[in-house]
Prior knowledge:
By secondary structure, the chain is mainly α. It has helices at about 5-15, 20-40, 50-65, 75-95, 100-120, 125-130, 135-150, 155-160, 190-200, 205-215, 220-225, 230-260. It is elongated and about 65 Å long. The chain starts with a helix and ends with a helix.
Amino acid sequence: MSDDSTSIWDDYKRTGDKRLRDRLILTYAPLVKYVAGRLGTGLPAHVDEGDLVSYGLLGLMNAIERFDPHRDTKFETYAISRIKGSIIDELRSMDWVPRSVRSRAREIERGIVELEHKLHRPPSDEEIAAHLGITDTEFQDSLTQISRSSVAALDELWTISSSGGDTVSLIDTLQDPNADDPSTEMTRTEVREALASAIGKLPDREKTVITLYYYDELTLREIGEVLGVTESRVSQLHTKAILRLKAKLQGSLERASAERFR
Length: 262
């Protein structure tokens, strides 16, 4: 953070001057556009990116209010996490994902868990489809529907709002809107280890998609060019990887909880 920006932060925190707050909002507004664009990938056409930006601006303003410029944390890192959380919370509250799609996603997650316990390796698409009693084509169609109707992404799985309104980074906890706060169940170290282990056990192509999308920040189209497949196929691989990770991490959470209460 430059001396000039530090001075602005100090002046704003000391005075609460609305003009300084507006100046900070304008300075960091591109972060909202960036996050909205990333989260908007694969969402249904009726979800307008302008709406995502509006939701994200609320997160940015909240981040500005709560940020401590004297902590050893970059504001951009802190703000991106809160912007993501604000957008995801609003999308979830809209509850526009069809119940049948949610149900199929849960079926696939359970199927993956059951097959991995049985096979001791990641199951193939054909094995998952057979386990579910559907054809491979129907399984691929299901992945497409889930990817188009869900914000199923690492950002959703690990970005949550705590009771105090704080947001944590994606590897600090495991998000599940229907469960108790996972931060009380697993330590941050355990979550990092579980996440690293889960990603490491993904099939090669899915691992590549996760790495290129979340770490190298390529778009789905660019990843398709790297892998020599269509953007829709990359979207399917991404969705399948997320479902695998969600299943693996939920299992880690349950095992950690069981060990604590022995």
